[in-house]
Amino acid sequence: MSEKEHKQALAEAAQSPKLHKTVVMVGMMGAGKTAVGRALAQRLGVPFLDSDHEIETAANMSIPEIFERHGEAFFREKERMVIRRLLEEERGVLSTGGGAFLAEENRRNISNFGVAVCLQADLEVLWNRVRHRDTRPLLRTADPFATLRDLYEKRVPLYQQADVSVVSDGSSTIEDMVDRVLEALRARPDVLEWK
Ligand SMILES: Nc1ncnc2c1ncn2[C@@H]1O[C@H](COP(=O)(O)OP(=O)(O)O)[C@@H](O)[C@H]1O
Ligand SMILES: O=C(O)C1=C[C@@H](OP(=O)(O)O)[C@@H](O)[C@H](O)C1
Ligand SMILES: [Mg+2]
Question: Quick check: CB of 136 below 6 Å from ligand 1?
Answer without folding.
Answer: no
